[in-house]
Design a protein that fits this description.
- The complex is a heterodimer of chains A (about 110) and B (about 120).
- With about 110 residues, chain A is an all-beta fold.
- The radius of gyration of chain A is 13 Å and the shape is globular.
- In chain A, about 35% of the residues are buried.
- Helix content of chain A is about 0%, strand content about 50%.
- In chain A, the strands form 2 sheets. In chain A, strands 2, 4, 5, 6, 9, 10 and 11 form a 7-stranded mixed beta sheet that branches.
- Helix content of chain B is about 0%, strand content about 55%.
- Chain B contains no helices and 11 strands.
- Classes of the chains: A mainly beta (about 110), B mainly beta (about 120).
- At the A-B interface, strand 4, strand 5, strand 9 and strand 10 of A face strand 4, strand 5, strand 9 and strand 10 of B.
C-alpha cells in the first residue's frame, strides 16, 4: 500500500506569512494527489487536485506543486480564514486511497 | 445543489453491526464513483471504501476487509455501508463523498454521522 507522510504535523504562523506543507508518497503516484482543508466539526474541502490544479472558488493564494513522490502545498499569504488542518490524499488508483496524517496550521 | 446526507450512526457494542446510509440529491447519482471516509475523534482522515457507478467494482481499506461492505441503490440515489464485527477502533465520524473523475477529487461531502463502538 502507498503511504503518505506529511510534514510538519503542526505549524505556527502569523497572518501574512508564507506557509509550505510537504507530502511524500512511499512510491510514485505521478500527479494523482489532492489537498483538502478541514475546519473543526466540518467536512473536508477540496483545494487542489492533480497536484497543482486549483479547485474552482479556492483563493489563488493556495497553490500546489510536485509529482512522483514529493508534493507541496503553499499558502502565499496566510489569512485568518486559513487556520485549519490540511490533508494530502493520493488517488493513484481506485483500489486504495491514502490520506496523509494532517498538518494543523495554528496562530503564532 | 449537490447534497449528501448520512444517517444510521449511533452507539453499538463491540462485535455488533450497523448500517450507514447516504442519501444523495442534486446530481445524477448513478454517474459517479462514491466513497466512505472516516475520522476517529481527534485523528486524521482515513479512506474506507469506494464503489463504482454500477456497483460492479468495490474497494476498501485493509483494516475493514471482510467486515464492512459498501453498496449502492441507484434507483433510490442511496449509498450504504454495512459494518459488521465492529471494534472500538471503528469509532469515528463517517463521511460519504462523491468522487469526480474529471477533474479528479472528492468534491462533495456529507456532514458525517458518528459511530461509537463501546460497551
Amino acid at each position: 500500500d502507498i503511504q503518505m507522510t506529511q510534514s510538519p504535523s503542526t505549524l505556527s504562523a502569523s497572518v501574512g506569512d508564507r506557509v509550505t506543507i510537504t507530502c511524500r508518497a512511499s512510491q510514485s503516484i505521478s500527479s494523482w494527489l489532492a489537498w483538502y482543508q478541514q475546519k473543526p466539526g466540518k467536512a473536508p474541502k477540496l483545494l487542489i487536485y492533480k497536484a497543482s490544479s486549483l479547485e474552482n472558488g479556492v483563493p489563488s493564494r493556495f497553490s500546489g506543486s510536485g509529482s512522483g513522490t514529493e508534493f507541496t502545498l503553499t499558502i502565499s499569504s496566510l489569512q485568518p480564514d486559513d487556520f485549519a488542518t490540511y490533508y494530502c490524499q493520493q488517488y493513484n488508483s481506485y483500489l486504495t486511497w491514502t490520506f496523509g496524517q494532517g498538518t494543523k496550521v495554528e496562530i503564532k | 445543489e449537490v447534497q449528501l446526507v448520512e444517517s444510521g450512526g449511533g452507539l453499538v457494542q463491540p462485535g455488533g453491526s450497523l448500517r450507514l446510509s447516504c442519501a444523495a440529491s442534486g446530481f445524477s447519482f448513478s454517474s459517479y464513483w462514491m466513497s466512505w471516509v472516516r475520522q476517529a475523534p481527534g485523528k486524521g482522515l482515513e479512506w474506507v471504501a469506494n464503489i463504482k457507478q454500477d456497483g460492479s467494482e468495490k474497494y476498501n481499506v485493509d483494516s475493514v476487509k471482510g467486515r464492512f461492505t459498501i453498496s449502492r441503490d441507484n434507483a433510490k440515489n442511496s449509498l450504504f455501508l454495512q459494518m459488521n464485527s465492529l471494534r472500538a477502533e471503528d469509532t469515528a465520524v463517517y463521511y460519504c463523498a462523491r468522487y469526480s473523475g474529471s477533474p479528479p477529487g472528492l468534491r462533495y461531502w456529507g456532514q458525517g454521522t458518528l459511530v461509537t463502538v463501546s460497551s
